[in-house]
Amino acid sequence: MTGADHGSGVRRRGRPPRTESAGTRDRILAAAREEFSERGYEKTSVRAIAKAAGVDSALVHHYFGTKEQVFEAAVSVAFAPALDAPTALADGPLDGVGERLTRFVLGIWENPTSRAPLLAIVRSAVNNETAAAVFRRLIAAQLLRRIAERLDIPDAELRAELAAAQLVGCAMLRYVIKVEPLASVDVEQIVTRVAPVVQGHLTGP
Predict the structure, then answer these.
(1) Judging by beta carbons within 10 Å of its beta carbon (0-12, 13-18, 19+), is residue 114 exposed, middle or buried?
(2) Alpha carbon of 35 to those of 39, 56, 67, 91, 194: distances in Å?
(3) For the whole model, what pTM was predicted?
(4) CA separation for the pair 154, 110 (Å, rounded)
């Protein structure tokens, strides 16, 4: 009876451990984003992430595996707002897609909350090939391919990549390298100048 009670008790109390696990995972991811942001990919260790999260290193490996997998999980969470870009493309006529996508992407970078983890991602990807490979997989599989599917025109993948290159380059100079006057100019001026170029990449001849 004790064994049966114990077994049924485990089942009844299954939800709290899952809730606790979710909280632990979130804490590890938050710590990972902070560590990658401050130190970059190469200088961040699983041990440092575990210490910042207040857990044992083995628990980080248990939930996520290698450091690369921790980075990919942290990047996926931080990159989530950008995954709505294909929807932004669909909400309106095709001849306005360049402006909608430009406003959407720059809007994410303009928001301090979403900008901080994006900076961590970009800095890590620029300085480390492993981090760059993770970033490429994420962009290719979850963003550019979905944008290309929305376009439904010839050379859609190439067009999506060129549009992304335009916007990523702009973001790099404005938010990462902070080249003036681009870093300080009103975002509306950037939208006015960049959106037609993005439009040309997506729907031009």
Answers:
(1) middle
(2) 6, 16, 12, 37, 33
(3) 0.68
(4) 32
Is residue 159 a contact partner of residue 97, using CB atoms and an 8 Å limit? Answer: no
How many angstroms separate the Cα of 88 from the Cα of each of 10, 34, 113? 46, 29, 20
Coil, strand or helix at 135: helix
Q: How far is CA 184 from CA 14, 39, 199, in A?
A: 52, 26, 24
Cα–Cα distance for residue pair 202/193, rounded to 1 Å:
15
C-alpha 144/C-alpha 158 separation (Å) is 9
- Using CA atoms, how far apart are residues 103 and 110, in angstroms rounded to an integer? 10
Taking residues 1-5, report their average pLDDT: 48
> Which of the pair, 54 or 80, is modelled with greater confidence?
54
Tokens of 117: 């983890």
**CA angle, 180 as apex, 174 and 43 as ends, to 5°?**
50
Q: Are the beta carbons of 189 and 103 closer than 8 angstroms?
A: no
**What is the distance between the alpha carbons of residues 154 and 63, in angstroms, rounded to a whole number?**
42
pLDDT band at 82 (very low <50, low <70, confident <90, very high): low
Distance CA 63, CA 155 (A): 39
- Reference 98, options 183, 186, 162, 141; nearest CA is 162
Give pLDDT, residue 8: 41
pLDDT value, residue 120: 73
